[in-house]
Write a structure and sequence with these properties.
alpha+beta; about 325 residues; Chemotaxis protein chec; 7-stranded antiparallel sheet; Surface presentation of antigens (SPOA)
Length: about 325
Amino acid sequence: MANSPTKLSAGEVAALVGGLMDMGNEDGGDLEVRAYKFGENDLSILGDYYALRMINERFCRIARSVFLPMLRIQPRISAFPPEMKTFDDYCDELENFVSLSVGRIEELRGQQLITMPPSFVSILTDSYYGGGVRKAGPTGRNEFTTTELRVIEIVTSGLNRALEQAWRDLTAITITPQSHDENLQFATFVDAEDMVVNCSFMVQLPTQDHANFDILYPLQTLKPLAGQLRSRMQSDLVDDDMSWRDRLERAVLEVPLELTAQLAQPEVALRDLMSAKIGDTMPVKLKPEPMLMIDGQPYYDIEFGTVGSKTALKLVREHDLTE
């Protein structure tokens, strides 16, 4: 069968031109016109943020140790689902006075922003320098003290290292501190109309209301990883949560074990045992190799003796438990 012609017929061309002429004569009052801007951001480019949510959950576990020196506890940190909005809309939700720490992500050739409210900074500073975890009242100030700036630097550095570990399964990143601002009007992060991905985190404080901080990524920074961020697959690389491993190791090493020194294992007739009285003696033949038992398993051959005025056991040979 011959292929269908790809050119329009004369009738089709006439119908098309006639339709265009009719459109030109209408006033367009009933037509719905939707504005389109070339190069605008596609809000669905990151899909359901599945991989980014996994990164944030891992970040919550790692970042707990960052606040330990300040709060003297490892607080519970929860992550909210990532949100996409313009930077201008995000700024409208914040007070003008806030901690803004900008970092450079070299591998993605982009930036990220950590924002902390001044009330949370005051709580961390007060607790870090010997105070308690108590609610910070309104001060009406518009700048941080030198001490608070030092605390912000410590916390920001720790959060950046935690982010690097949390991102390691997806891609290796390096975050370099770039600048710090205290006023949204002077923030040099992105333009007001640019889209950002806002990751919000909640820190639960003892005896006080929770505190929040945010981590923002420009959408343009994450676009090269859009395919990976939509994927539900993770790499085989497993992050080492050293704080969790240290606590687990300490807990295991502090488990009490009952040791049993087996010096002899005599056999006695039931009639002799039933007729035994207080003061009677029974002959016992020591084993040629006395053993130290742990949970019924022989671990060491031992020698029985004394140290000073105390009875003691000397470990002679360790048993191979794989035999």
